[in-house]
Design a protein that fits this description.
Elements lengths: L1 H22 L3 H8 L5 H4 L3 E7 L2 E6 L5 E4 L7 E8 L3 H12 L6 H11 L10 E9 L14 E7 L5 H4 L11 E3 L7 E4 L4
């Protein structure tokens, strides 16, 4: 009886792990979706991190043009892809590591900002772009290579920028750029593509 129960448990585990593996889109599809936020001329040279195993990012394609993209996370309840300048990777990677370790909310930035201040974490010395698309789950259409319901966002990271140094207000605006996290290592201009 016990051996039969172990066989059932092993079979259920194998089916579950196989189902999880099948749920991952093919690498080519992950790459096509991940680079979608970028201008067309930058897509072929962008690096892509995606999923060969659920929940674990892997390099699917190395960056050749200074842009790094993240594929849509399979477990997310929305479609979200982002591409950013490779100079932002240490900062972004640290955020991912902290979240994976259970750090949540504003604590992620509290830790990163302290590490930047101590010289343990690098932020870019020049402005660095981030492009993203966010929409409903499964918005990416592999046949057409589009995500028709997703909204684009363009962000320009400018560490330590302030309203005084940029002339850009820190009040959210739909009609023009605005500065988020002024004076911090995460300071960035928010710019919608469709303004």
């Amino acid at each position: 009886m016990r051996a039969a129960a172990l066989v059932v448990i092993a079979t259920v585990s194998l089916i579950a792990s196989t189902a999880g593996a099948q749920a991952l889109p093919p690498e080519a599809q992950q790459i096509a979706a991940a680079v979608l936020p970028l201008p067309a001329a930058q897509r072929d040279g962008a690096g892509v991190m995606g999923y060969r195993t659920a929940g674990k990012l892997a390099i699917l394609r190395p960056a050749r043009n200074g842009m790094q993209c993240l594929a849509d996370e399979p477990g997310d309840d929305r479609f979200h892809v982002a591409c950013y300048a490779t100079s932002l990777e240490p900062f972004m990677a640290r955020g991912r590591a902290l979240r994976a370790a259970g750090t949540t909310g504003t604590q992620v930035d509290t830790v990163r900002f302290a590490e930047v201040k101590r010289g343990r974490l690098r932020v870019p010395s020049a402005p660095a772009a981030l492009f993203s698309l966010t929409g409903p789950k499964d918005d990416f259409d592999a046949t057409t290579g589009t995500a028709p319901k997703s909204k684009p966002l363009f962000v320009m990271y400018m560490p330590y920028a302030t309203t005084a140094t940029t002339g850009v207000p820190s009040t959210p605006s739909k009609s023009g750029p605005w500065l988020m996290f002024p004076g911090t290592p995460k300071a960035h201009l928010m710019l919608q593509h469709d303004m």
